[in-house]
Specification:
It is a single chain. The protein is mainly beta. The chain has one domain: Jelly Rolls. The protein has three helices and 13 strands, in the order αααβββββββββββββ. The strands form three sheets. It has a seven-stranded mixed sheet, covered by helices on one side. β5 and β6 form a beta hairpin. α1 runs antiparallel to α2. The longest helix has 14 residues. The radius of gyration is 16 Å and the shape is globular. The protein starts with 16 loop residues before the first helix and ends in a 7-residue tail after the last strand. The N terminus is likely disordered.
Length: about 200
């Protein structure tokens, strides 16, 4: 299940019937501006299984990977693969709705709140949650996600009203800046081969 690179990523993969049905259900929710409870229920009860998503599973020794399953004007559907010790930076979702479901392994979620401008630090930690397979979270604000455990993890992410950049916070330097978002694979095709080793 956990592969790095490989021949399967060299061609475009059409979504299976089950994944296409799931995408269509998300598309219908987009007409209602993604009602939070309905999206949570959809992810809890009808998310594709790991077996269905196997063509989109790519791990990297360098960092966690962002694998695009489907892109539409109103949402992105991604599969993120996390090796042990890999984590996202602290980042914000500035008005975007974001949900995720842990499909395999465990992940640690840390939520933050922004401090008033006159404070000495930009952010303060709020809560830390551990999510095992089946755990669903969202919508997300300012947070970090990481695999603090010794086994790989896989999570399915839905970004409603997606954007190309997000705010990333450096807590050591007490700074934030915009970072462009990239993919490691798109529809099963490797687009960042130097990282998938």
């Amino acid at each position: 299940m956990s592969r790095e690179g490989g021949n399967k990523g060299q061609y475009l993969i059409e979504p299976s019937f089950e994944i296409s049905e799931f995408i269509e259900k998300i598309n219908k929710l987009s007409y209602e501006n993604f009602p939070i409870d309905q999206v949570l229920r959809l992810l809890q009860k009808e998310a594709p299984t790991l077996a269905m998503l196997e063509p989109y599973i790519f791990f990297s020794n360098a960092r966690y990977t962002r694998n695009l399953i489907h892109k539409a004007p109103d949402f992105d559907l991604l599969l993120l693969c996390w090796g042990p010790g890999q984590h996202s930076p602290v980042h914000g979702h500035e008005g975007q709705k974001c949900w995720m479901k842990v499909l395999d392994g465990r992940l640690e979620f840390t939520d933050y709140q922004e401090e008033p401008p006159h404070e000495r630090r930009l952010l303060s930690p709020l809560t830390v949650n551990i999510g095992e397979a089946g755990y669903v979270d969202g919508p997300a604000g300012i947070h970090a996600v990481g695999n603090a455990f010794d086994i790989p993890a896989i999570s399915l992410h839905l970004y409603a009203l997606p954007f190309e950049q997000c705010d990333v916070y450096n807590l050591d330097l007490n700074e934030k800046h915009k970072v462009s978002l990239t993919y490691h694979t798109i529809h099963g095709k490797i687009v960042a081969p130097e990282e998938l080793r």
